[in-house]
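Sanity check

After download, print the first record. It should look like this:
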Amino acid sequence: MSNYDVDLFVIGAGSGGVRAARVAAGYGVKVAMAESQFYGGTCVNIGCVPKKLMTYVAGYESAMRDASGYGWSVGERSLDWGKFIKRKDEEIARLNGIYEKMLNNSGVEIHWGAASIIDPHTVRVNSKDITAERILIATGGKVSVPNIEGAREHGITSDDIFYLKEQPKRLVVAGVGYIGLEFAGIFNQLGSKVDVIYRRDKILNEGFDGDVREFLNGEMIKKGINFHPKTNITKVEKALGVYQVHLDNGEIIEADQVLFATGRVPNIDGLGLEKLGVELGKSGAIIVDKCEQTNIPSIYAVGDVTNRVALTPVALAEGHALVDRLYNGQDRYISYDNIPSAVFSNPNVSQVGLTEEQACSQYPNEIDIYKSEFRAMKMILSDSQERTFMKLIVHSKTDKVLGLHMVGEGAGEIVQGFATAIIAGATKADFDLTIGIHPTSAEEFVTMRNKA
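Expected structure tokens:
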């Protein structure tokens, strides 16, 4: 008999926490969980899901504009922003209900409230102490707002943008990570004037291929987004209902909303980790070993709170593998190599494997590059000048494809399939032997023959 109230206590009902709790309960483990906000975490409520719905509503506007080239007469139209937000909220509520039902059906004991860890085997929620053999922290990340005058008072974050009462006609975006670029693309398609401010000279970060960063920047500029590189916001103030964004070059931009998409940090507030002695890294990331275990043996962490690979499917995989090892006798670990990812900008970006810069660093003078840039067939009859970019990175000595990158419509859908080939160790010869599906953009990946 256990000396604890439960076998496993999970803090956080996001993707990683819910997966771990459900799988563990399915193995007969007594599981309790604490959550203070909502089921599904950032992804379901203020991240991937509502953001993707926003890309769809914006995409319909682009499609209607492009339809005239195909002979359609599309008359006056308007977006009922309030109706869209209501429908979005209904879908999020539906998903929350599904998560709640899954947890209840699996027998997980739910405690609503903020949790803190009192000692290596005790969690406190709403003044109640629950003891556990093991504790899993899966509290995800939170937005980070820079220390700029007026930023917190007058700016919004990605947590807020899903609940705006009306569409901003003028939007300033601070930051050129995937969040900033995605919202810049969404509101640009919807007809808003969009200015993007960033202190670097290139968009995205160095985890993306250099050619991809440059190509995407050019495509977004063609669509009318105003980029301000090597520029900082010094102050945000409000006058007569309008936000004034002051830049360090002396320029002032007026806006209806100012979005700070300046990164996320691990959400460890109130957990009591420092007092407990849990080892923390940069920005408060919980340091774990390959087994997701902290320096305190009974405490584990998965997902964005560890600040390793901040992607929902990674958190899911980490949580699942952890409980398989702990409670089902499986010696199973996830691989962090060749994790596919996507940016739902306009156009989309997706990648799997190494960038050219990473490949050249790891394999000097042993890299072959294949590139293709073209106007996709769908765009030919429309007035859109959007182009597609594809790139393969190949190890010349083994012929193995080390990286695959795409900028263009449906990039995420296309790269997801190719990711399996990359993980399986496909060679350029395998790509060359593959018959393309014609006419598609995806077939370009198996028809590239000339080295760049």
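If your output differs, re-run the checksum step. Summary of this record's structure: The chain is about 30% helix and 25% strand.
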